């Protein structure tokens, strides 16, 4: 059909009896979804439930447990229609459904996903897929839609082989009994890290522990502090089970449905089907991990630009030494949270010596180095500060977030660090937009792989993210500011790209920026596995065939 059927359209929306029959077929797992601030507004105001929502508004675990909540609450609203429902709004204000789905299937078994896909296809419904709702492009939700809520598919099983039908396609057969781990779509990285620790294994995963481990993270590429050592998350996916638009479950691997396997590793979530389970390669646990916290401040712009230039210049060498991590650029400030696996404190100090001992009368440096016994311990204590919500990495949940990003090639840091440093200074000082740099590429990320991962990742060392948080009344201006700030990075990196999971909602030329030379093949696969375009989301493969 040329248009999706949305809630409220009497000409196409399923009748009550259709929903009752469907609900019975999925064992009563259909939920009427309300915005998370629903109990805080008249006439349905409930003091106890409102107090619970208010207290937990910024708790990512609580938001994951709400079928209608997104991690960034701007995606619960419909700005185009001025519809919202927030704890920030007065009790007397009307609570609008906004962009929150009308119904959700609370999945407990895969057959419910198959039936939900078939029902949406039969009735031409707008369909979305959600686990935790951690999606900065709002792809986990949509106005007037039916949601497939994957949060309670919690299979978690370590095993020593792949069970592949064609042994020549299967690597590492018969090794460690925990060489692989298969997880359901509802498992989060925190849960997976804890399980991996018990098996003395490490997995390439997110720094935000409450991100879903089998959803859009890996399907979009998935960067990690361990990526320079082991590759991107998508590089470590060895099998997926996915329900495609025909309502059938398929296994995608190197020996089954190979094109779909290729597309699901980097081609984006919510596009080719509903991933119900995923299998990762695991690795023997790190011997230790050094965490470096470095804070540098400059007193004026010339010294700040000098600092940033030397910092940009030294990162390729730090990459060769094995470092990864994050850095923040603010108003005359640079802060680092860098990680070094399987090395000594003495080596770490020597490797960072230039920065730690930076001699400049208008620059001050403070730092600390600490060794942790495991990668999981480092994330929990050093990055998250023992706070389960980990605001130091992902920011507070329940706040509006407008990001944009650019992959910075290694060549740029080697050949024109001055140009890179001036761009960072311009964004931080002139635009007053905060910068988060993810130093998570290079090393094994640079190794070419046969997957749909954006080719720009293979040539890059940094992912630079700019983002702002703004109230609804200022969101349009804030989005324009973020795009203008990101264009500064685009202008100095022609031919590079962006990371689709932390990208500008208004990303220009998204086909090239998100997918590079892979787009043509991705589009062809999309047409084969989803010819009717049942799975459609913003700036996803095939989204140009639709308008909103």
Automatic annotation (TrEMBL):
<dbReference type="GO" id="GO:0071949">
    <property type="term" value="F:FAD binding"/>
</dbReference>
<dbReference type="InterPro" id="IPR016169">
    <property type="entry name" value="FAD-bd_PCMH_sub2"/>
</dbReference>
<protein>
    <recommendedName>
        <fullName>FAD-binding PCMH-type domain-containing protein</fullName>
    </recommendedName>
</protein>
<dbReference type="GO" id="GO:0016491">
    <property type="term" value="F:oxidoreductase activity"/>
</dbReference>
<dbReference type="InterPro" id="IPR006094">
    <property type="entry name" value="Oxid_FAD_bind_N"/>
</dbReference>
<dbReference type="Pfam" id="PF08031">
    <property type="entry name" value="BBE"/>
</dbReference>
<keyword id="KW-0560">Oxidoreductase</keyword>
<dbReference type="InterPro" id="IPR036318">
    <property type="entry name" value="FAD-bd_PCMH-like_sf"/>
</dbReference>
<dbReference type="InterPro" id="IPR016166">
    <property type="entry name" value="FAD-bd_PCMH"/>
</dbReference>
<dbReference type="Pfam" id="PF01565">
    <property type="entry name" value="FAD_binding_4"/>
</dbReference>
<feature type="domain" description="FAD-binding PCMH-type">
    <location>
        <begin position="97"/>
        <end position="285"/>
    </location>
</feature>
<dbReference type="InterPro" id="IPR050432">
    <property type="entry name" value="FAD-linked_Oxidoreductases_BP"/>
</dbReference>
<dbReference type="InterPro" id="IPR012951">
    <property type="entry name" value="BBE"/>
</dbReference>
<comment type="similarity">
    <text>Belongs to the oxygen-dependent FAD-linked oxidoreductase family.</text>
</comment>
């Amino acid at each position: 059909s040329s248009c999706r059927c949305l809630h409220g359209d009497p000409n196409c929306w399923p009748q009550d009896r259709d929903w009752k029959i469907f609900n019975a077929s999925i064992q009563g797992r259909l939920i009427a979804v309300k915005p998370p601030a629903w109990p805080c507004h008249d006439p349905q105001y409930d003091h106890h439930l409102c107090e619970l929502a208010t207290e937990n508004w910024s708790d990512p675990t609580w938001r994951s447990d709400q079928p209608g909540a997104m991690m960034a609450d701007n995606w619960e609203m419909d700005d185009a229609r001025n519809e919202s429902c927030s704890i920030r709004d007065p009790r007397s204000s009307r609570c609008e459904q906004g962009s929150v789905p009308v119904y959700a299937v609370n999945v407990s078994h895969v057959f419910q996903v198959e039936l939900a896909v078939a029902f949406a296809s039969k009735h031409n419904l707008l369909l979305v897929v959600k686990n935790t709702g951690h999606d900065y492009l709002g792809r986990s939700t949509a106005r007037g839609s039916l949601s497939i809520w994957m949060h309670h598919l919690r299979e978690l099983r370590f095993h020593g082989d792949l069970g592949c039908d064609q042994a020549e396609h299967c690597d590492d057969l018969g090794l460690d009994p925990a060489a692989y781990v298969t997880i359901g779509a509802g498992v989060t990285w925190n849960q997976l890290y804890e399980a991996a620790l018990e098996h003395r294994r490490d997995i390439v995963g997110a720094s935000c522990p409450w991100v879903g481990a089998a959803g859009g993270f890996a399907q979009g590429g998935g960067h990690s502090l361990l990526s320079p050592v082991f590759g991107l998350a998508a590089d470590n996916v060895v099998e997926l089970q996915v329900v495609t638009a025909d309502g059938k479950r398929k296994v995608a691997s190197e020996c089954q449905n190979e094109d779909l396997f290729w597309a699901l590793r980097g081609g984006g979530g919510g596009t080719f089907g509903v991933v119900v389970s995923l299998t990762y390669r695991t690795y023997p646990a790190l011997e230790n991990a050094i965490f470096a916290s470095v804070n540098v401040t400059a007193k004026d712009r010339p010294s700040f630009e000098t600092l940033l230039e030397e910092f940009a210049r030294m990162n390729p060498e730090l990459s060769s030494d094995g470092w990864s991590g994050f850095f923040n650029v603010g108003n005359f400030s640079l802060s680092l949270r860098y990680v070094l696996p399987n090395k000594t404190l003495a080596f770490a100090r020597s490797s960072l010596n230039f920065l730690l001992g930076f001699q400049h009368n208008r620059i001050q440096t403070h730092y600390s180095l600490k060794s942790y016994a495991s990668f999981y311990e480092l994330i929990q204590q050093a990055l998250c500060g023992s706070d389960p919500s980990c605001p130091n990495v992902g920011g507070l949940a329940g706040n509006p977030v407008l990001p944009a990003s650019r992959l910075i090639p290694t060549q740029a840091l080697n050949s024109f660090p001055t140009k890179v440093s001036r761009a960072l200074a311009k964004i931080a000082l002139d635009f007053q937009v905060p910068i988060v740099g993810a130093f998570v590429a290079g090393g094994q990320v640079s190794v070419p792989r046969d997957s749909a991962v954006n080719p720009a990742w293979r040539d890059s060392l940094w992912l630079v993210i700019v983002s702002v948080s703004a109230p609804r009344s200022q969101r349009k201006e804030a989005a324009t500011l973020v795009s203008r700030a990101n264009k500064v990075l685009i202008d100095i990196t022609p031919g590079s790209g962006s990371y689709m999971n932390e990208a500008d909602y208004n990303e220009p030329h998204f086909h090239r920026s998100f997918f590079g030379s892979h787009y043509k093949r991705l589009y062809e696969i999309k047409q084969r596995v989803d010819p009717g375009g049942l799975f459609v989301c913003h700036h996803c493969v095939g989204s140009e065939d639709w308008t909103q």
